[in-house]
């Protein structure tokens, strides 16, 4: 598996957001620490997901930035992404690994140590763990697990733990101390006045 970046930028396709503008701003300063996850609303068509993923892959390739696709692994393969991310409502991790193949990056969502260990056994190369804090970006999430919840999972697995859910640069020192390898964010980069500066702050905190 290619080495994994520590800052995962998840595309924000909510109305009024411009995920490609955010990406264009962040890419030139992010270097190898950036991973971009193409995530579209459940109501988006596969064609819309594919078109966005193709554009994201095209933007990421000159910077050698890893591009993943959330949920829709056929879109990941078709668009030339390096891998995908699955959760409880998506293909099981073991099936996702079969679809993507042994070399792909495969992320899985885990919210507690037991399912985290199972996901790793089934073939996950990293875990997205959360929600760390409350967030308005996504509906229907369980209660926040906080830094202790992130620590519990990080102590249970040997793959990178990516903390997600309401994460900001200010949270990063505590998350790293708890064993998180990196963070995945939507709001901390989308909808801020200066995404490049926000990304620099996050990467600085993740790599110091
Ligand atoms: C890095 C990362 N962690 C968790 C998630 C959430 O995935 P999932 O539980 O499948 O929910 P959706 O994102 O599909 O709504 C993620 N996407 N990325
Ligand atoms: C897409 C997603 N999944 C989560 C989970 O806990 O599974 S939290 C989340 C949204 C993350 O956005 P923000 O950084 O704006 O809080
Ligand atoms: Mg999912």
From TrEMBL:
Pfam family, one: TMP-TENI
Binding site for 4-amino-2-methyl-5-(diphosphooxymethyl)pyrimidine: 37-41, 70, 109, 138
EC number(s) on file: 2.5.1.3
CDD domains: TMP_TenI
Keyword entries, A-Z: Magnesium, Metal-binding, Thiamine biosynthesis, Transferase
Cofactor note as given: Binds 1 Mg(2+) ion per subunit.
GO cellular component: cytoplasm
Domain Thiamine phosphate synthase/TenI: 7-189
Catalysed reactions, semicolon-separated: 2-[(2R,5Z)-2-carboxy-4-methylthiazol-5(2H)-ylidene]ethyl phosphate + 4-amino-2-methyl-5-(diphosphooxymethyl)pyrimidine + 2 H(+) = thiamine phosphate + CO2 + diphosphate; 4-methyl-5-(2-phosphooxyethyl)-thiazole + 4-amino-2-methyl-5-(diphosphooxymethyl)pyrimidine + H(+) = thiamine phosphate + diphosphate; 2-(2-carboxy-4-methylthiazol-5-yl)ethyl phosphate + 4-amino-2-methyl-5-(diphosphooxymethyl)pyrimidine + 2 H(+) = thiamine phosphate + CO2 + diphosphate
Pathway where it operates: Cofactor biosynthesis; thiamine diphosphate biosynthesis; thiamine phosphate from 4-amino-2-methyl-5-diphosphomethylpyrimidine and 4-methyl-5-(2-phosphoethyl)-thiazole: step 1/1
Positions with a binding annotation for Mg(2+): 71, 90
Cofactor(s), names only, from the UniProt record: Mg(2+)
Binding site for 2-[(2R,5Z)-2-carboxy-4-methylthiazol-5(2H)-ylidene]ethyl phosphate: 135-137, 166
Enzyme class: transferase
Any GO MF annotation of the entry: thiamine-phosphate diphosphorylase activity
One GO BP: thiamine diphosphate biosynthetic process
Transmembrane residue ranges: none
PANTHER family per UniProt: THIAMINE-PHOSPHATE PYROPHOSPHORYLASE (PTHR20857), THIAMINE-PHOSPHATE SYNTHASE (PTHR20857:SF15)
Main function: Condenses 4-methyl-5-(beta-hydroxyethyl)thiazole monophosphate (THZ-P) and 2-methyl-4-amino-5-hydroxymethyl pyrimidine pyrophosphate (HMP-PP) to form thiamine monophosphate (TMP).
HAMAP family assigned: TMP_synthase
Protein family membership: Belongs to the thiamine-phosphate synthase family.
NCBIfam families: thiE (TIGR00693)
Record's protein name: Thiamine-phosphate synthase
Gene name of the encoded protein: thiE
């Amino acid at each position: 598996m290619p080495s994994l970046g520590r800052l995962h930028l998840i595309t924000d396709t909510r109305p009024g957001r411009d995920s490609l503008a955010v990406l264009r701003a962040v890419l030139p300063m992010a270097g190898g620490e950036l991973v971009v996850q193409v995530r579209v609303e459940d109501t988006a068509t596969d064609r819309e997901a594919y078109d966005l993923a193709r554009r994201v892959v095209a933007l990421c390739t000159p910077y050698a930035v890893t591009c993943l696709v959330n949920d829709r692994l056929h879109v990941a393969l078709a668009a030339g992404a390096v891998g995908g991310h699955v959760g409880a409502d998506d293909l099981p991790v073991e099936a996702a690994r079969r679809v993507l193949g042994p070399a792909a990056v495969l992320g899985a969502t885990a919210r507690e140590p037991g399912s985290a260990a199972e996901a790793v056994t089934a073939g996950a190369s990293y875990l997205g763990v959360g929600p760390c804090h409350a967030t308005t970006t996504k509906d229907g999430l369980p209660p926040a697990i906080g830094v202790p919840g992130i620590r519990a999972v990080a102590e249970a697995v040997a793959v990178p733990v990516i903390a997600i859910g309401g994460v900001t640069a200010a949270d990063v020192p505590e998350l790293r101390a708890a064993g998180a390898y990196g963070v995945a964010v939507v709001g901390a980069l989308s909808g801020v006045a200066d995404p490049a500066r926000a990304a620099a702050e996050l990467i600085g905190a993740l790599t110091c």
